[in-house]
From TrEMBL:
Family to which the UniProt record says this protein belongs: Belongs to the enoyl-CoA hydratase/isomerase family.
Protein name as catalogued: MaoC-like domain-containing protein
Coiled coil: none
Domain MaoC-like: 24-139
The organism's taxonomic lineage, starting at the top: Bacteria, Bacillati, Actinomycetota, Actinomycetes, Mycobacteriales
Domain of life: Bacteria
Species of origin: Corynebacterium terpenotabidum Y-11
């Protein structure tokens, strides 16, 4: 292939979705998952100054009923990872701001060695009335462990950019 042909080749840059590309009711699966290690949990827990022994003290956790005698993965790590797993597919370079989180639940615990998978449902979207070329997207994030059990849910309101004037195609590049 000549250098002219190489320079004329189609290029694709990874990015999230513009407001117009979100589809209400669509579930976006985020893969690959993320296996959570003891090091992940200990580092996150100590960095955030969370001294809960259920996350840090294996001997103490072993005496507690109901959690298999193991330390639990910090729920804030779980929530952060569920949202993080969605970024490259949904909001990479297209988000303006997180507006808020609600309806956060942790119906089942995560343990060291569990693998976290995430999915997101687009609940609603609308053009902003006060910010030209931006819109609000309401997302429901769901985290599941390797057994398919839901370990985390959260609703997140985001402010995202509308498609720039003149841009065509789907996420990641021109469809032509």
């Amino acid at each position: 292939m000549s250098s002219d042909a190489v320079s004329a080749a189609r290029t694709v840059e990874q990015r999230g979705l513009w407001l117009e590309e979100f589809e209400e009711g669509t579930t976006y699966l985020h893969r690959p998952g993320r296996t959570v290690t003891e090091a992940d949990n200990t580092l996150f827990t100590t960095q955030t100054m969370n001294t809960q022994p259920l996350h840090l003290d294996a001997a103490w956790a072993a005496t507690q009923p109901g959690f298999r005698g193991e330390r639990l993965v910090n729920s804030m790590f779980t929530l952060s990872t569920v949202v993080g797993l969605s970024v490259s597919q949904l909001t990479l370079g297209t988000i303006v701001a997180n507006l808020g989180f609600s309806e956060i639940t942790f119906p089942a615990p995560m343990f060291h060695g569990d693998t976290l998978y995430a999915e997101t449902i687009c609940l609603s979207k609308r053009v902003s009335t006060s910010r030209p070329n931006q819109g609000i997207v309401e997302l429901r994030h769901i985290g599941r462990n390797q057994h398919g059990e839901i370990v985390c849910t959260a609703v997140r309101d985001t402010l995202v950019q509308c498609r720039p004037t003149g841009e065509t195609g789907i996420a990641g590049g021109d469809a032509s």
